[in-house]
Amino acid sequence: MTDPRIEAAARALCNNAGYRPDGDEVTPVNYPEMDVNWKVYEEEASVALAAADAAAWRLISEYDGLKPVLVLQGKSRLVARPIRDLALSEDVVWVTEEGETNEESGAYLVFLDPPPTHWQPLPNLPGEGVKV
After folding, report:
1. Is the previous residue joined to 123 through a cis bond, with omega within 30 degrees of 0?
2. CA dist., res. 110 & res. 96, Å (int)
3. Which of 7, 69, 92, 132: CA 20 to 30 A from 124?
4. pTM exceeds 0.85 for this model
5. Strands 108-111 and 58-59
6. 26 CB contacts (<8 Å, ≥6 apart)?
7. Whose CA is closest to 40, among 4, 1, 73, 7?
8. 49-106 pLDDT, tens per residue?
9. First-last CA distance in the chain
10. What distance in Å separates the CA atoms of residue 124 and residue 52, rounded to the nearest whole number?
11. Which letter does DSSP use for residue 32 in this model?
């Protein structure tokens, strides 16, 4: 089974090239082992997404927002957000939320130590992406 992200990217590439993703006008002649047009673009989509995924990680020092983002702490990927509380530290402190409490926030704050080294934006929610 093809990764849904790769299939979506291959379909977009196919459509952008002027072919119907589920058509077969390209595949029988040039690629007889492939049954639909979008599969011709599968390898290109896979390579492009791998490059984009690698480039998406940015140094944590470059983040200047307050919204939750995906962070890299060692080999762990976590959703975390920075807090700026001068009573705690002059530096930005990164936290993630776990469990439930009776507090208004609804979760315990867990301080990340050591702090994360890289970040990237959270992906779009289902249905917020580009329509193909």
Report:
1. no
2. 5
3. 92
4. no
5. unpaired
6. 19, 37, 40
7. 7
8. 999 999 999 999 999 888 899 999 988 999 998 887 767 667 778 888 776 555 565 5
9. 19
10. 15
11. T
